[in-house]
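The methods section describes the discrete structure representation at length, but only in general terms. What matters is that the chain and its backbone geometry are given together, residue for residue. Nothing conveys this as quickly as seeing an actual entry. For illustration, here is how one protein appears when written out as sequence plus structure tokens:
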Amino acid sequence: MCSLIILTVRGAGRSRAVRSKANHRSPSTVARLIDEMRGAKWRPPSPGGSSCLVCMLMQGFSRSYWSEALGCSTTTVSKWRARARAAAVLNPELQRAATEAMCALSPADGMYMARIRGRAQMPYWSRVAVVEYRKRGYGLAEIARAFRCATRTITNIIRRTSFLMPDRVLTQYQESPPARRASNGATYLLPSQTPTSASV
């Protein structure tokens, strides 16, 4: 979807070479990681402005995140989102601008998003950035300090973003999911499980 994801996937082959020794770097390494945030260009929009409409159309952010970042209630965020969707119908350029904004996000932007999230969970783009910095050789504890979260949170993020790995192996259940049961109790097969004339 965006350059941040592409950057992460391309570096996946190097991720297995990262070892726990990176966790024991000096505090200056953490400072250097945080210093990368100077390259972050993304900033929260001005509430109610045109840039706010564009941000409300961006994927990967929860209502609670926008509530913390913009200093408003989740109800207000819901209203802004509804207004943004209505405006995008009349002006397709808004959705195009939101897509371009997502494509321009960098790992530094993801770190900045995480550091201003308050009590909200990290947005999707921060989680992708965590995986990218891990592949660059930074330790779990270093990333946790830079992203202002617990080391366990970083561990969980890396474990749950295996979809970014190009060499991901599907389980037998994922490759051949069982027949699903409809709400009325009837069982139906998935398209891949539908018998063909050759198999009858």
Notes: Confidence is low (pLDDT under 50) at residues 5-25. The longest strand covers residues 180-181.
